[in-house]
Design a protein that fits this description.
The complex is a heterodimer of chains A (320) and B (276). Chain A is built from 14 helices and 2 strands. With 320 residues, chain A is mostly helical. Chain A starts with 22 loop residues before the first helix and ends with a helix. The N terminus of chain A is likely disordered. With 276 residues, chain B is mainly α. In chain B, 75% of the residues lie in helices and 0% in strands. Chain B is built from 15 helices and no strands. The mean pLDDT of chain B is 85. Classes of the chains: A mainly alpha (320), B mainly alpha (276). At the A-B interface, helix 1, helix 2, helix 4, helix 5 and helix 6 of A face helix 1, helix 4, helix 5, helix 6 and helix 7 of B.
Chain lengths: 320, 276
């Protein structure tokens, strides 16, 4: 840029014209730099960090997954052995089953309740802000704290859940020891935290739907219920894609709730009945120090998320 | 809207939801303010007792729990990450929204793609090995660094700047001779402050709650608050009052933030959702 030495118009030439860079070309050079290069400077912090802490771990996870590590610290090329072993590993499939099972148990009711709740919040109400805030309240509590509170609520001997069930004559349930009860307890923790948040997002989507659509439908004699199914739901599609994608990523990487449910242990219960894939990765990598195996499992988790996101996307698209 | 009064069903449903939302926290206070024998009584206690101060002091003074260290560490981690993410995102958001440069569309697409990848879960093995080779395991920078990268932040600030800063404003400042950084400082920053607040609150809450990565990379000697509670929970599994007093302590900063900025949080979440 400093090579730009086109002489300035004669009238503006400084009296002793011996300097090669006049103030005015210097300024032009700076402004060209400012326009062309500064934008890259502004976005560079993000991309430098991405290279170091995003791209590097992704690529090296692949690299690690092709090696065999053992406790003694020896490293050996393994090719695709880790993946083959993983596909034949019952514990891994158990974790996949648990993750998807808890995900469905949590997500399906959560979406339905969030939609109903958003519909209710969309009406004229007193204490609007207070209600919206209390619906969001669970989100600002810390995950581990909530999981501990729920673990105590679902304790076998002194838990509130069993005490309440006992009042209606149900035998105490050992929530932690059995598969389905433990899934239900964990799904409830997830739902308690996220249903209100998703309802608020649905509410935001509902408020962008033009009012005259409803007025026209009312004139045509469509009932409130019918308006909900024929107008609200289809118009909410973009919001729903956002919510479902978020829930899929969050649900399939579930870690804090089930881990805390077993007092901070990543085994996920005595039989691994609620060990999720994220817990499996941490167990293989940081309890057994089999880095290669954990890395392969991490790539499988990514695959699971892609499949999950694709299925959800197709399902949501079918709403019309 | 022809119906002025919401139907009874709606009211019941909302009341029920509000109670359910607040109950577990109320329950936390009930147990945290009781003695251990009361906490496990049948039927369970339903009202708070008088031991809250005592239990909280017991948690703070417990030598193995490192609870004060945990609170302080979480403050440092969450604040550092929040300030850097907001700064990085505001700079990049301005560039993507209002500056013309070659490759900007492709770079923005790249940011959106990175939002889809759960990097902190996927990359744990290399990230951990990296921290080991830098001898940073057990230190706070090991927790902080991987989270400075936040695609959602860049996306949000790009959207916000596009909407809050008209192009004419940028052009006018340019005509007056302002440099790009000057435009950012004097024109963009004042206009996008609400967006920065939303991103900041969001990031702070996420970091305060982060669990998996600190559990891997930190030790019990130098925990974040979530790890400190987990340690309490592991070592004193039946000492409910102690654990619940700890959990109560761990969410107090979040509740303070929430009550202070409740209106902005609700508004921000709703705005962010519509723009996404």
């Amino acid at each position: 840029m400093s090579l730009n030495v086109a002489p300035p118009p004669a009238a503006h030439r400084p009296p002793r014209g011996s300097r090669r860079r006049t103030p005015s070309t210097g300024r032009r050079g700076w402004s060209a730099f400012d326009l062309k290069a500064v934008p890259y400077l502004l976005v560079s912090p993000y991309f430098l960090l991405f290279a170091a802490f995003g791209l590097f771990p992704l690529v090296f996870t692949l690299w690690y997954s092709l090696y065999d590590y053992d406790l003694a610290g020896t490293t050996e090329w393994a090719g695709l052995d880790n993946y083959a072993k993983l596909l034949a590993d019952e514990d891994f499939w158990n974790a996949v089953t648990n993750t998807t099972g808890i995900f469905f148990l949590a997500t399906v009711p959560q979406m339905l309740i969030a939609l109903m709740l958003a519909n209710a919040l969309n009406k004229r109400l007193r204490f609007r802000l207070a209600i919206r805030m209390s619906v969001l309240f669970p989100l600002v509590t810390s995950v581990v704290a909530v999981a501990i509170v729920f673990s105590q609520l679902f304790a076998r001997d002194w838990g509130l859940a069993n005490w309440l069930l006992g009042l209606v004559g149900v035998e105490p349930i050992n929530w932690r020891a059995e598969r389905l009860p433990s899934w239900i307890a964990i799904a409830l923790m997830v739902d308690w935290r996220w249903t209100g948040y998703n309802a608020i997002i649905f509410l935001a989507g509902m408020q962008t739907i033009p009012k005259d659509l409803y007025e026209a439908a009312a004139i045509d004699g469509a009932s409130r219920r019918r308006q909900f199914w024929q107008i609200t739901l289809p118009m909410l599609k973009p919001t729903m894609i956002f919510v479902v994608l978020n829930s899929t990523i969050g649900g399939l990487t579930l870690f804090a709730e089930p881990t805390t449910f077993y007092n901070g242990n990543v085994d996920g219960g005595s039989q691994g009945q609620f060990q999720t894939v994220a817990m499996f990765i941490v167990k293989q990598g940081f309890r057994e120090f089999d880095y290669g195996y954990a890395a392969a499992a991490a790539w499988m988790l990514f695959l699971l998320i892609l499949v999950g996101a694709a299925i959800n996307f197709v399902l949501v698209r079918r709403i019309r | 809207m022809t119906n002025w009064k919401p139907a009874v069903m709606t009211r019941v449903m909302l009341a029920f939801t509000v109670i359910l939302s607040v109950f577990p926290l109320y329950w936390m206070l009930v147990i945290a303010s009781r003695s251990n024998s009361e906490a496990v009584a049948v039927p369970p206690p339903l009202l708070p007792g008088g031991n809250l101060g005592e239990n909280i002091m017991a948690v703070l003074q417990h030598e193995d729990a490192k609870f004060l260290t945990g609170l302080l560490n979480s403050m440092i981690v969450a604040t550092t990450v929040t300030v850097s993410v907001v700064l990085i995102s505001t700079l990049a958001g301005f560039a993507f929204a209002r500056l013309r440069f070659k490759g900007s569309k492709i770079l923005l697409m790249a940011v959106l793609l990175t939002m889809m990848v759960p990097l902190q879960q996927m990359g744990v093995v290399p990230l951990y090995r990296l921290m080991v080779s830098l001898e940073w395991t057990g230190t706070l920078q090991a927790v902080i660094l991987p989270y400075l990268l936040n695609g959602f932040g860049v996306f949000l600030m790009t959207q916000y700047t596009t909407q809050a800063v008209p192009n004419e404003l940028v052009e006018a400042a340019r005509v007056d001779g302002a440099s790009t950084l000057r435009v950012w400082w004097s024109v963009v920053l004042p206009a996008v402050r609400p967006g920065m607040a939303v991103l900041g609150i969001n990031t702070f809450m996420l970091m305060w709650n982060d669990f998996m990565w600190p559990l891997i990379v930190l030790t019990g000697e130098n925990p974040t608050v979530q790890i400190a509670i987990t340690q309490l929970n592991m070592r004193f599994a039946t000492n409910y009052t102690l654990i619940f007093a700890g959990t109560a302590l761990s969410i107090i900063p979040l509740i303070v933030v929430f009550v202070a900025f409740g209106r902005q949080i609700v508004g921000g979440i709703m705005e962010g959702a519509v723009k996404a």
